[in-house]
Design brief:
Protein name: Myb/SANT-like domain-containing protein
Number of strands: 0
Shape: globular
Structural class: mainly alpha
Organism: Rhodocollybia butyracea
Strand content: under 5%
């Protein structure tokens, strides 16, 4: 069995930069089409991944969905939780709110790396993946 693709931070940055250059071709809500997914797979052939298996079109699409989830969750959490978020300073955890942060990151582990450091891809991702309203009465 072939090893699964492993996505290190430099790989995620390459993925985001590639899609950003192709953003005019994105589907509604920032969804990747087949052409972009195949282009990403070809983009990761050289240089090959430092770790893990080949980054196939399917693996690229799955990772893109995870990156979009990080964006959507960060928007949702900051709107509903009361935690401030800053692109440079992250969630601004201090000794005074560290216990609350521990509870928060246990419930939302996707945000653990952003305690005091922002997500460097936030602005690009917000441009590419606008929140699309869903529901019966939209």
């Amino acid at each position: 069995m072939a090893p699964h693709a492993k996505w290190l931070e430099p790989d995620k940055e390459r993925l985001i930069d590639y899609v950003y250059d192709q953003r005019a071709e994105l589907g509604e809500g920032g969804n990747l089409n087949k052409q972009i997914a195949n282009g990403l797979a070809a983009h990761f052939v050289q240089p090959p991944p430092a770790q893990g298996g080949t980054k196939t079109a399917s693996a690229c699409k799955t990772q893109w969905q995870m990156v979009c989830l990080t964006l959507f969750e960060s928007k949702s959490i900051t709107e509903s939780s009361g935690w401030p978020y800053d692109d440079e300073l992250g969630f601004q955890v201090t000794p005074e709110n560290a216990d609350a942060w521990d509870s928060f990151k246990t419930a939302h582990p996707i945000f653990a790396p952003f305690a005091n450091v922002g997500w460097p891809h936030y602005e690009k991702m917000a441009e590419m993946c606008p929140r699309v309203a869903k529901g019966t009465h939209v």
